[in-house]
Amino acid sequence: MNQLSEIISLIDDELSKRELELDPAGYFIIYLDREENLICAKHFTNIINEDGLAVDPETGKVIPAKGKVMRTAETLFQGKTAKEICVKIFEQTQPSPVTKLDHAAYLGREFMKAENALITGEHYIQD
Protein backbone atom coordinates (compact mmCIF):
# COMPACT_ATOMS: atom_id res chain seq x y z
CA MET A 1 0.00 0.00 0.00
CA ASN A 2 1.40 3.41 -0.92
CA GLN A 3 1.55 6.39 1.44
CA LEU A 4 -1.60 8.07 0.09
CA SER A 5 -3.57 4.83 0.43
CA GLU A 6 -2.40 4.48 4.03
CA ILE A 7 -3.45 8.07 4.84
CA ILE A 8 -6.86 7.57 3.24
CA SER A 9 -7.33 4.30 5.12
CA LEU A 10 -6.45 5.95 8.45
CA ILE A 11 -8.88 8.82 7.82
CA ASP A 12 -11.67 6.41 6.84
CA ASP A 13 -11.03 4.17 9.86
CA GLU A 14 -11.16 7.15 12.22
CA LEU A 15 -14.33 8.60 10.67
CA SER A 16 -16.02 5.19 10.87
CA LYS A 17 -15.82 5.42 14.68
CA ARG A 18 -18.00 8.56 14.96
CA GLU A 19 -21.48 8.54 16.46
CA LEU A 20 -24.34 8.66 13.97
CA GLU A 21 -28.04 9.35 14.28
CA LEU A 22 -30.03 6.57 12.69
CA ASP A 23 -32.41 7.24 9.82
CA PRO A 24 -36.02 6.85 10.97
CA ALA A 25 -36.92 5.63 7.46
CA GLY A 26 -34.83 2.49 7.93
CA TYR A 27 -31.52 0.90 7.05
CA PHE A 28 -29.93 -1.06 4.20
CA ILE A 29 -27.96 -4.28 4.02
CA ILE A 30 -25.72 -4.08 0.94
CA TYR A 31 -24.18 -7.09 -0.78
CA LEU A 32 -23.07 -8.32 -4.19
CA ASP A 33 -24.74 -10.91 -6.38
CA ARG A 34 -21.69 -12.00 -8.33
CA GLU A 35 -23.58 -14.48 -10.54
CA GLU A 36 -25.76 -11.67 -11.90
CA ASN A 37 -23.10 -8.93 -11.51
CA LEU A 38 -25.42 -6.84 -9.34
CA ILE A 39 -25.13 -4.53 -6.37
CA CYS A 40 -28.02 -5.38 -4.05
CA ALA A 41 -29.46 -3.37 -1.19
CA LYS A 42 -32.17 -4.74 1.07
CA HIS A 43 -34.13 -1.96 2.81
CA PHE A 44 -35.54 -2.62 6.26
CA THR A 45 -37.91 -0.32 8.12
CA ASN A 46 -37.37 0.61 11.75
CA ILE A 47 -38.54 2.98 14.46
CA ILE A 48 -36.04 5.03 16.44
CA ASN A 49 -36.82 4.84 20.17
CA GLU A 50 -36.24 7.52 22.82
CA ASP A 51 -32.70 6.19 23.39
CA GLY A 52 -31.84 6.64 19.69
CA LEU A 53 -31.85 2.88 19.00
CA ALA A 54 -33.42 1.19 15.97
CA VAL A 55 -36.44 -0.89 16.93
CA ASP A 56 -38.31 -3.49 14.88
CA PRO A 57 -41.71 -1.90 14.15
CA GLU A 58 -43.42 -5.31 14.35
CA THR A 59 -41.93 -6.65 17.59
CA GLY A 60 -40.79 -3.49 19.38
CA LYS A 61 -37.41 -5.16 20.03
CA VAL A 62 -34.10 -3.33 19.58
CA ILE A 63 -32.33 -4.36 16.36
CA PRO A 64 -28.74 -5.35 17.21
CA ALA A 65 -25.94 -3.69 15.25
CA LYS A 66 -23.98 -6.94 14.98
CA GLY A 67 -24.99 -10.54 14.54
CA LYS A 68 -27.73 -12.22 12.56
CA VAL A 69 -31.20 -10.73 12.62
CA MET A 70 -34.14 -12.56 11.10
CA ARG A 71 -36.24 -9.83 9.49
CA THR A 72 -37.99 -9.48 6.16
CA ALA A 73 -36.76 -6.69 3.91
CA GLU A 74 -39.27 -4.05 2.87
CA THR A 75 -37.71 -3.67 -0.59
CA LEU A 76 -34.80 -5.09 -2.59
CA PHE A 77 -32.98 -2.61 -4.81
CA GLN A 78 -30.54 -3.86 -7.47
CA GLY A 79 -28.28 -2.24 -10.03
CA LYS A 80 -25.18 -2.97 -12.07
CA THR A 81 -23.60 0.36 -11.08
CA ALA A 82 -23.60 2.65 -8.06
CA LYS A 83 -25.33 5.32 -10.12
CA GLU A 84 -28.08 2.96 -11.27
CA ILE A 85 -28.95 1.80 -7.74
CA CYS A 86 -28.78 5.39 -6.41
CA VAL A 87 -31.21 6.57 -9.10
CA LYS A 88 -33.62 3.77 -8.17
CA ILE A 89 -33.46 4.59 -4.45
CA PHE A 90 -33.25 8.39 -4.45
CA GLU A 91 -35.06 9.44 -7.64
CA GLN A 92 -37.52 6.71 -8.59
CA THR A 93 -38.82 5.58 -5.18
CA GLN A 94 -41.45 7.75 -3.50
CA PRO A 95 -41.58 8.26 -0.65
CA SER A 96 -37.84 7.97 -0.37
CA PRO A 97 -36.56 5.19 1.92
CA VAL A 98 -33.83 7.65 3.03
CA THR A 99 -34.64 10.80 5.03
CA LYS A 100 -31.21 11.95 6.22
CA LEU A 101 -28.53 13.50 4.02
CA ASP A 102 -25.70 11.81 5.94
CA HIS A 103 -27.40 8.45 5.32
CA ALA A 104 -27.69 9.24 1.59
CA ALA A 105 -23.99 10.21 1.44
CA TYR A 106 -23.03 7.01 3.30
CA LEU A 107 -25.05 4.89 0.86
CA GLY A 108 -23.42 6.59 -2.13
CA ARG A 109 -19.97 5.80 -0.72
CA GLU A 110 -20.93 2.19 0.00
CA PHE A 111 -22.40 1.69 -3.46
CA MET A 112 -19.16 3.00 -5.01
CA LYS A 113 -17.16 0.56 -2.85
CA ALA A 114 -19.50 -2.26 -3.90
CA GLU A 115 -19.21 -1.29 -7.59
CA ASN A 116 -15.41 -1.27 -7.33
CA ALA A 117 -15.46 -4.70 -5.67
CA LEU A 118 -17.75 -6.00 -8.40
CA ILE A 119 -15.34 -4.75 -11.09
CA THR A 120 -12.10 -5.90 -9.41
CA GLY A 121 -13.39 -9.15 -7.92
CA GLU A 122 -12.36 -8.00 -4.44
CA HIS A 123 -14.39 -8.92 -1.39
CA TYR A 124 -17.02 -6.33 -0.37
CA ILE A 125 -17.79 -5.65 3.31
CA GLN A 126 -20.30 -2.97 4.22
CA ASP A 127 -18.86 -0.37 6.62
By DSSP, the count of extended strands is 5
- Classification by helices and strands: alpha+beta
Question: What percent strand?
Answer: 15-25%
Low-confidence sequence ranges: none
SSE order in H/E notation? HEEEEEHH
Q: C-alpha Rg, in Å?
A: 16 Å
Main sheet specs = 3 strands, antiparallel
Strand order of the largest sheet: 1-2-5
Distance between the termini: 20 Å
Q: Mean of residue pLDDT?
A: 93
Percentage of residues in helical conformation? 25-40%
Give an account of the 3D structure:
The protein is α+β, with helices and mostly antiparallel strands. It is 34% helix and 18% strand. It has one domain. It has a 3-stranded antiparallel β-sheet with strand order 1-2-5, with helices on one face. It has a two-stranded antiparallel ribbon with strand order 3-4. The two termini are 20 Å apart.
Q: Summarize this, please?
A:
With 127 residues, this protein is α+β, with helices and mostly antiparallel strands.
Features:
5 strands, 127 residues, three-stranded antiparallel sheet, alpha+beta, two-stranded antiparallel ribbon
